[in-house]
Structures are given as C-alpha cells and as structure tokens.
Amino acid sequence: MNLRKLAVKDVKNLNVKDWGIPLELMGPDGTWYRTDNETGALLQALQVTYDYRKLDPQTGLEVIVNEPVITVSLSSLARIPIAGERWIVRIPVDISHLDVFVNFVLTEDRAPEGGASLGFIRLYPQKAVQL
Q1: Tens digits of per-residue pLDDT, 66-83?
Q2: Residue 88: CB partners within 8 Å, gap ≥ 6?
Q3: Torsion, CA 100, CA 35, CA 83, CA 127, rounded to 10
Q4: What does each C-alpha distance from 43 to 23, 55, 91 come to in angstroms?
Q5: Within 13 A of 16's CA, how many CA atoms are on the CB side?
Q6: With 70 as the cut, is the pLDDT of residue 41 above it?
Q7: How far apart are CA 59 and CA 74, in angstroms?
Q8: C-alpha span between 93 and 106 (Å, rounded)
Q9: Could you tell me if 87 and 25 are in contact, meaning their C-beta atoms sit under 8 angstroms apart?
C-alpha cells in the first residue's frame, strides 16, 4: 500500500477511537451534519486546539488568540465547508464536559485549510455573538 494512503487511513482511525472531540456542523442551507459520513457514528473532530499564537501586525509581538482550530477527517464529512460559506459549528470547550456545546461561526474571514495533504481539513471558527 502507498504510504500516503496508509497515513490517510491512520488519520481517519483516530476519529473512530476515543480520541475525537464531538462536533456538529450546520451548512449554509440549514442542514445539520452530526454523523460521520462513513461510519454513521457521531461526528467527531480529530483535534481541537482551543487557542494558538499569532503575530500582532501592529506590535510585531506574538499574542494568544482564544479561538479554536478544528481538524476534521474529510471522509467524515458529507459536505465539506469551502471558503466564503457561513457555517455554524458546535463543539465543547471544556473537555471534562463533552456534552456541553458552544456555538461558533465559520465566516469569510478565515478560509478552511488543508484537504489535499492527508485527507483532513482545518476549520477556523469564531465565537458566535447574539445580536
């Protein structure tokens, strides 16, 4: 077997085991995606990083950004978010309470990344604000 194909399969296997973080997505058309497209199990992210470092363009210093980065196996998704679409993203923000979800929004400000390398995509949601 090709090593790249094996790596894609291994990445997907992380999603099926006890490693994943629950994930719910609502597409631009209002359709909810809560189950894994391949297995029918509850949809899970491979990884959620709850904050990251970024350079502040005004000061040139690193700052901590308190926004999640969600990594999801492409084969888990029935529909893949693309740049310019608005999606609702629901994830737990406290790993000790994986059944308590918080709403986030995918916006035009930050396009999804990845997909071509090892069969996963990174999503950059922002905290949803009620008006």
Answers
A1: 889 999 988 899 999 999
A2: 25, 26, 103, 104, 105, 106, 128
A3: 0
A4: 6, 32, 11
A5: 10
A6: yes
A7: 37
A8: 16
A9: yes
